[in-house]
C-alpha cells in the first residue's frame, strides 16, 4: 500500500514537471524579441538572420522546438548561450554548486536557530522570555531577506569592519576567506527563514502538548520536558518537516537577490545577467531548473511524510 502511494506521488511529480516545462517554454517563446536578432545584433542582414534561425531551430514549428529542448534537457544538454556561444550545462552546473553551498548552509543555520527557540517559546509561552521570542519571530518574518542583507553589510562589514562586504572565494583556494565571505549572506538568508520556522515549531509543539497521550504521560509522573522529548517531538516534527522543505525551496529562489547584493557568482547572479542580456536559452534553463528543484523537494516531502506518519500508509 505504501509503495502504491509513493508511486502515485512519483507519477504526479512527473506530470507536474511536464506541465511546468510546457509553461516555461511557451512563456519564453511568446516573449518579445528574436533570438537570432539578439545573437547577431541589429545590423545583421536577412540572410544571416535566416541562417541563424535555422541554426537555433527557431524556424521550426513550436512543437518541434519543444521536443528538441525537452530531449536536450532530459539528457543534460541545455544548448548554447546566444551571447557567448558557450555550452549552458557546465556554466549552470558551476554556478549551481555555489548556490547549493549558500542555501544548504543557510538552511542548517535556520533550523539550528528555529528548533530550540520554537520549543522554548512553546514551553514558556506564558513567561516573558517565551513571549519575547514569539514577538521577535513575528518581526523577523516582516523583514525581507535583502533588507537584512543590507543591514548586515552596513553594520558588520562597513561600520565594524569585521567581515568582507561582498565577493566569493572558492573553498579550495582559501578556506578561511571562503568562510569569512560566506557568513553574511548565510545570515541574511537564515534570519528570515529561522523566524518563519520558529513560529511553526512553536505552533506544532503547542498542538501536541494538548493531546491526550501527552496528558497521560504527565499523569504517570513524567516532567513536561521529558514528556515532550519522549512523546511529543516526533509528532510535532511532521508539520515542521513540510514547512522546512517549502522554505528550502524558497531559499533557492530567494538566493537570487542575496547573490546580487553580495556579488556571489551563483545561479541567481547568472539568471540576472542572462535577463539583462536577453540570453533566452540561459533564462529558460535556469527557470526550468529552479522549477524542477522546487517540485523535487515537494515530492521528497510527500514521501518522507508517508514514511513517518503511519496513518498515511493505508
UniProtKB/TrEMBL annotation:
Pfam families: BPD_transp_1, BPD_transp_1_N. PANTHER family: DIPEPTIDE TRANSPORT SYSTEM PERMEASE PROTEIN DPPB-RELATED (PTHR43163). InterPro entries: BPD_transp_1_N (IPR045621), MetI-like (IPR000515), MetI-like_sf (IPR035906). Coiled coil: none annotated. SUPFAM superfamilies: MetI-like (SSF161098). It is found in: Cell membrane. One of its GO terms (molecular function) is dipeptide transmembrane transporter activity. The keyword Transmembrane helix applies. Its main location: membrane. It comes from the Bacteria. This is Nickel transport system permease protein NikB. Gene3D superfamilies: MetI-like. The chain crosses the membrane at residues 12-31, 98-120, 141-162, 182-201, 238-262, 282-308. GO terms for cellular component: plasma membrane. Keywords: Cell membrane, Membrane, Transmembrane, Transmembrane helix, Transport. Residues 96-301 form the ABC transmembrane type-1 domain. The keyword Transmembrane helix applies. It is a multi-pass membrane protein. Belongs to the binding-protein-dependent transport system permease family. The gene is nikB.
